[in-house]
Design goal:
It contains 34 helices and 24 strands. It is of the alpha/beta class. It has 2 domains: 368 residues, Glycogen Phosphorylase B (Rossmann fold, 3-Layer(aba) Sandwich), CATH 3.40.50.2000; 320 residues, Glycogen Phosphorylase B (Rossmann fold), CATH 3.40.50.2000. Helix 25 links the parallel strand 20 and strand 21. The longest helix has 30 residues. It is globular and about 95 Å long. The mean pLDDT is 95. The structure holds (1S)-1,5-anhydro-1-(2,5-dihydroxyphenyl)-D-glucitol (H53).
């Protein structure tokens, strides 16, 4: 009974010495314990990497204590849980973040000092966890941090890819991809749960059998794979709460293929078993197109099936009536990637729990919410029916049934408008009959979220217009956010100290709205001076990094102008490079006197191109070609430098963002769903040069358009500009720059022709030509502001002061209250 269990637990606890202590001496003992017993290194000789590992293990022990207590508490209080389902999480490094969130940063620094190590040096030993591509994946990571910090009873679910996002290396200006086998040296942050495993099934057939006089469908699968859980504790800041990110890895199932053994094909049966592990091997490196790849579909279902089995098991432990599911469980679909969850949960409730279709459906359509990060209809995910039918035959039947019910209901509402019916159908007829994953997600979710105001308007008026007219109340938007714990506290310690000093409190770390308090000090000269010094320090850090990475020496007096993000035509890195060419061309044609007035610039570009994205790769090459010419032109010297930062990832971002004076967010209006990079720069007092796209529109609301450099066509104007096509008036400067590239001024003449074609009049879909004039004006305005340091610093301070609204804490609170309907549940210390 309970008494017995409690007595046993108390005895166990008495044997445990109580909880781990956090004074420097105890920390040292624990670190050395791990050197000796976990790493099996001698305490007389271990290097920085081993010291990092031992240190990480001692932090992990502390995380585990809180993580256990948090889950026991969630269980005890029976609070409604949120399950955040995402195929991608870009967590980056964990050490500094964990130690800061645990609140034992100073103790660790002292403990290590006494052992002769420096915390910052050991922290550099850690590699990134890059289980995602770009914005969507880093946003997931920020949301996990906020969920933990705000005490929400949440779980993240994802895949434990053995190869994360490829490493980018540059050879001769070309991108090459190298595998990121990130688990090579072990991962101290995860906990393998060998007893938390589920079987995931594929293929086979569906048969109809008689069960108590009723005909039921039974799936007889052909292949079974096992999913093993790996848990990653996510600590909140200023709270004991430590939530879980559970990632699944595929292992061969223990169900032996008896036939193979009996026929003596032992070797082949082992080889086949190993193939099943491939499911969770590798992250797909394409940022937004996932069309019709069998392995990708397998990954999605593998992830969905393991997660839902786990969630349902946990629910059943505490409840015996599925009617309670909507009050106990919120399932969040992070984009359409996990949307097979809908079919899977229907299958579980109908085929395994025998609830009957309509009862199951009534439950299912109350538990899902869906966030779409996509803008254009062509970018939406589709799965060929043939592929799905052979891999998941029962799920295909379920999807057909959901669709036919939906179509019936729709006909009653809108009549026989066949065009509209076919647009809204979950099944797309056509050359390749496919499942439209977005339509499925909309039909089955109670809420459809956009990620910014502009994005949400596009969804309502274009992408999902038909659905919006049917269910206006389903459509909401919650502007994205980023966590100030990672993007200020971890990445910019000097700014962090300055903020706390002038705000007179550290409370902004949990409540970013307090940053508006900086406005009270903008005219204070000593504050401004300190602000300037912090920026300079961060520029110094960045300059050192640039020199080591690319050998280019840059002047700290120059304006550091940064564009870092995935390389995409719509993000218009090419516009940036053309602007740089134009600047170079102007400098070359200037006399000495005029040159003296020019603001020196260091232009910094970084980002990965999807391996199969030719144009994006050409943009990277062009960037290097221009850099080669400009940086080696002694006549230009420090007036202009261009550097490409290779292998841009979370930890590189932590270094680059604090050191930026200006950052560019220059997508063609209407193409960036939100954009979260801009928010990180804003928090770090970097000025923005931007188009009125995505969340920039909301940033303008907070910051005022005078405090950033805005340019370019507005969303409403873009369609018209495109229609005009060839008749557009493109400035002469643009034509000249284009000519220079075409004529081989930067070498590789032939190679760049097709890149130039993409922006030629009549072909310039992303409107580089028509935005070029106003882009140059915005750049000139930035130059002008930079030579008035007082004005510049004021704008920099006001940027940080306006960034509070873009904390993911605000995002998560909005989702929790409006969409997920979950309450905070703080585990007592
Ligand atoms: O998601 C971010 C947005 C950003 C958007 C990005 C995204 C991906 O990273 C991948 C696929 C996709 O459809 C969208 O491009 O604008 O800020 C988080 O919402």
């Amino acid at each position: 009974g309970f008494g017995e269990r409690k007595a046993k637990a108390e005895r166990m606890f008495s044997l445990m010495d109580g909880f781990l202590k956090n004074d420097p001496f105890s920390l040292q003992k624990d670190i050395l314990h791990h050197v000796e017993y976990t790493m099996a290194r001698s305490r007389f000789s271990f290097d920085d990497y081993e010291a990092y590992q031992a240190l990480a293990h001692s932090v992990r022990d502390r995380l585990i204590e809180r993580w256990h207590d948090t889950h026991i508490y969630f269980k005890k209080t029976k609070s409604k849980r949120l399950y955040f389902l995402s195929l991608e999480f870009l967590m980056g490094r964990s050490l500094s973040n964990s130690v800061i969130n645990l609140g034992i940063q100073d103790q660790y620094a002292e403990a290590l000092n006494q052992l002769g190590f420096e915390f910052e040096v050991l922290a550099e030993q850690e590699g990134d966890a890059s289980l995602g591509n770009g914005g969507l994946a880093r946003f997931s990571a920020c949301q996990m941090d906020s969920l933990a910090t705000l005490d929400y009873p949440a779980w993240g679910y994802g895949l434990r890819y053995e190869y994360g996002l490829f490493r980018q290396i540059i050879v001769d200006g070309f991108q090459h991809e190298q595998p990121d086998y990130w688990l090579n040296f072990g991962n101290p942050w995860e906990i393998e749960r060998i007893h938390v495993t589920y079987e995931v099934k594929f293929n086979g057939t569906v048969e109809e059998v008689d069960m108590n006089g009723e005909k039921v469908k039974v799936w007889i699968p052909g292949e079974t794979v096992e999913a093993v859980a790996y848990d990653n504790p996510i600590p909140g800041y200023g709270t004991k709460n430590t939530i879980n990110l559970r990632l699944w890895a595929a292992k061969p199932s223990n169900q032996f293929d008896l036939e193979a053994y009996n026929t003596g094909d032992y070797i082949n049966s082992i080889v086949n078993r190993q193939n099943t592990e491939a499911i969770s091997n590798v992250l797909y490196p394409d940022d937004r197109s996932h069309q019709g790849k069998e392995m990708r579909l397998k990954q999605q279902y593998f992830f969905v099936s393991a997660s839902l089995q786990d969630i349902i098991r946990r629910f059943k432990e505490a409840h015996n009536n599925f009617d309670e599911l909507p009050e106990q469980v919120a399932l969040h679909l992070n984009d359409t990637h996990p949307s097979l969850s809908i079919a899977e949960i229907m299958r579980i409730l109908v085929d395994e729990e025998h609830l009957g279709w309509s009862k199951a459906w009534n439950i299912v359509n109350k538990i899902f919410s869906f966030t779409t990060h996509t803008v254009v209809a062509e970018g939406l995910e589709k799965i060929p029916v043939d592929l799905l039918g052979s891999l998941l035959p029962r799920h295909l039947q379920i999807l057909y049934e959901i669709n036919s019910n939906f179509m019936e209901e729709l006909k009653k509402k809108i009549g026989l408008d066949y065009n509209r019916l076919s647009r809204m159908s979950i099944i797309e007829e056509g050359a390749v009959k496919s499942i439209r994953m977005a339509n499925l997600s909309i039909v089955c979710s109670h809420t459809v979220n956009g990620v910014s105001k502009v994005h949400s308007n596009t969804l309502k008026t274009k992408t999902f217009k038909d659905f919006y007219e049917l269910w206006p109340e389903k459509f909401q938007y919650t502007t994205n956010g980023v966590t100030q714990r990672r993007w200020i506290v971890v990445s910019n310690p000097s700014l962090c100290a300055l903020l706390s000093k002038w705000l007179g409190t550290e409370a902004w770390i949990r409540n970013a709205d307090l940053l508006t308090g900086l406005r009270d000090h903008v005219d204070n000269t000593s504050f401004r001076h300190e602000w300037k010094m912090v920026k300079r320090l961060n520029k110094m850090r960045l300059a050192e990094y640039i020199e080591t990475m690319s050998g280019v020496k840059v002047s700290l007096d120059a304006m550091f102008d940064v564009q870092v993000k995935r390389i995409h035509e719509y993000k218009r890195q090419l516009l940036n490079i053309f602007g740089i060419i134009h600047r170079y061309d102007c400098l070359k044609n200037m006399d000495k006197n005029d040159r003296r007035k020019v603001v020196p610039r260091v232009c910094i570009i970084g980002g990965k191109a999807a391996p199969g994205y030719e144009i994006a790769k050409k943009i990277i090459k062009l960037c290097h070609a221009v850099a080669e010419k400009v940086n080696n032109d002694a006549d230009i010297g420090d007036l202009l430098k261009l550097v490409f930062i290779p292998d841009y990832n979370v930890s590189v971002a932590e270094l680059v963002i604090p050191g930026a004076d200006l950052s560019q967010h220059i997508s063609t209006a209407g193409h960036e769903a939100s954009g979260t990079g801009s928010m990180k720069f804003l928090m770090n007092g970097c000025l923005l040069l931007a188009t009125a796209d995505g969340s920039t529109v909301e940033i303008i609301e907070e910051l005022g358009s005078d405090n950033l450099f805005l340019f370019g066509a507005k969303v409403e104007e873009v369609a018209e500009l495109r229609e005009k096509g060839g008749a557009l008036k493109v400035p002469l400067q643009f034509a000249r720059v284009l000519r220079m590239v075409r004529d081989g001024y930067f070498g590789d003449k032939d190679y760049f022709q097709s890149l130039c074609d993409t922006v030629e009049v009549g072909n310039d879909f992303y409107l580089l030509g028509s935005d070029f004039g106003s882009y140059l004006e915005a750049q000139a305005a930035a130059d002008k502001a930079f030579v008035e340091p007082d004005k510049w610093i004021k704008m920099s301070i006001l940027s940080a002061a306006a960034s509070g609204r873009f904390s993911s804490d605000r995002t998560i609170r909005e989702y929790a209250e409006r969409t997920w309907k979950i309450d905070p549940c703080q585990c007592p210390f």
